[in-house]
Write a structure and sequence with these properties.
This protein is 34% helix and 11% strand. It is α/β, with parallel strands linked by helices. The structure holds iron/sulfur cluster (3 copies).
């Protein structure tokens, strides 16, 4: 019997799910090892239970809370997929504004039409077994986790800074070129792809567990970034993880 796999979307842009459909070279191999029983973007069928549920997007309403509890009850393994699901991601910027201002910006005079909650990661509501980080979720990470689950192995964990992989790749540090970068506190596993292309890291994979927020803030302001801009950079994907 092949494992029954389902994909679900909560509050997010659906970029993580689309990223998965881009597995042109691997899709047939994936389909050979599992039965995909639910995936709103590509099929109409539904199932009662799942061996593995991949969940994209975060929690942002009472309806989301009810639905994720239902999915959790019916899933043996639940995987949070992408920044919105893993730590709140960009959705959590909502939490830094007065809720009425957020409602009004989105729905105008219909601002009380829909019930809303502060943006939360999936783990704030139900137990999450595993995660695939990034915005959008990293394709290599997804494949590694998928293979580990199918073959009963432990998926890799990444709790070291992006700087580690950046140094291993022998990139020139962006701080040497007049730019700034969140690599010292951001969680690696992406092969430091952004600095590798000359773009600063914005921490889309979350921050390392023992990150030093005050030191990062000081490094940014010492390099000419205003405190307000530094705060914006550090909260872009990680509003749930910082106090600045
Ligand atoms: S993590 Fe990024 S790509 Fe994925 S749903 Fe959220 S905003 Fe979209
Ligand atoms: S460019 Fe960024 S990730 Fe690379 S070494 Fe410098 S601070 Fe670290
Ligand atoms: S370098 Fe930073 S922003 Fe780019 S993918 Fe890695 S964690 Fe995300």
């Amino acid at each position: 019997m092949k494992p029954k796999v389902a994909f679900f979307d909560f509050t997010g842009c659906e970029g993580c799910q689309l990223n998965k459909l881009n597995f042109e070279n691997e899709l047939l191999d994936i389909l050979a090892h599992v039965d995909i029983v639910e995936f709103r973007e590509v099929m109409d069928e539904r199932a009662d239970s799942y061996d593995i549920a991949f969940v994209e997007g975060g929690i942002s309403s009472p309806a989301c809370v009810e639905r994720i509890h239902d999915i959790r009850r019916r899933s043996k393994i639940l995987v949070a997929m992408g920044a919105c699901a893993v730590n709140g991601g960009i959705n959590a910027l909502k939490n830094r504004q007065p809720i009425d201002a957020v409602r009004e910006a989105v729905y105008g005079e219909d601002k009380y039409l829909f019930a809303t909650l502060p943006a939360m990661p999936i783990s704030a509501v139900v137990k999450v077994d595993l995660e695939v980080r990034g915005c959008p979720m990293s394709q290599p990470d997804f494949l590694k986790l998928f293979k580990a689950l199918v073959f009963g192995k432990q998926p890799p964990k990444y709790d070291y800074a992006v700087c580690v992989e950046c140094k291993l790749n022998e990139n020139e540090c962006l701080f040497n070129t007049g730019q700034v970068c969140l690599g010292p506190i951001s969680r690696g596993g992406c092969e430091a792809i952004c600095p590798g292309f000359g773009q600063f890291c914005t921490g889309c994979r979350g921050f390392v567990e023992d990150m030093n927020e005050a030191a990062m803030l000081k490094i940014l302001t010492d390099h000419g970034v205003s405190r307000d801009e530094a705060r914006k950079q550090m909260t872009l994907f990680n509003a749930t993880e910082v106090s600045v």
